[in-house]
Design a protein that fits this description.
Layout lengths: L1 E2 L2 E2 H17 L10 H8 L13 H18 E4 L3 H6 L4 E6 L5 H12 L5 E7 L3 E4 L2 E4 L3 E7 L13
Antiparallel strand pairs: 1-2, 3-4, 4-8, 5-8, 6-7
Length: 161
């Protein structure tokens, strides 16, 4: 009796051959490709849009990732009287992530504003203990960075303020 155009015996022989090849370590011709091979094939660009180095899509993803990381580090510019007075000395003040260090802050400033800072001072503040009725709580710890830029370079922070 034929099963979808094949005999049962033919199908059994084919399965036995596949098992034997697997035991010997040989690969069947129709075997699926590994994930690494599939990934390499998907990153290949057609000749018409080929660039030296990275593809356009890879560059776009990298810049998006770089900016998203920068905006996680630089939370907001601090607009206070003291911070405004520091603007005369070409220094700008930012609220930054409590986990960020000076190197990450410098990279974030360069990524967002396109200016490499000359110096960065960090001030770490501990959240105060607060009370509302009988309930006690604690504000979040915070960190701010005073970023010094080279002479002649500025950042447009106060545009919408």
């Amino acid at each position: 009796m034929a099963l979808f155009g094949r005999k049962k015996e033919d199908k059994k022989e084919e399965k036995a051959a596949v098992k034997a090849a697997a035991l010997k370590g040989g690969k069947k011709e129709e075997e699926k490709k590994s994930m690494k091979e599939l990934y390499e094939e998907s990153s290949v660009v057609p000749d018409s849009s080929k660039k030296v180095g990275k593809t356009e899509k890879a560059e776009e993803i990298e810049t998006r990732h770089r900016f998203s990381r920068a905006y996680r580090i630089l939370l907001k510019p601090l607009v206070t009287e003291k911070a405004t007075n520091l603007g005369v000395l070409n220094k700008y003040v930012f609220a930054v992530s409590p986990k960020a260090n000076k190197i990450e802050i410098a990279e974030a400033i360069k990524a967002v504003y396109g200016v490499k800072p000359v110096g960065i001072n960090i001030i770490k503040g501990e959240g105060k203990t607060v009370r509302s009725g009988r309930t006690f709580g604690k504000r979040k710890d915070w960190k701010k960075a005073i970023v010094a830029l080279p002479a002649g370079k500025t950042i447009k922070i106060y545009e919408g303020v």
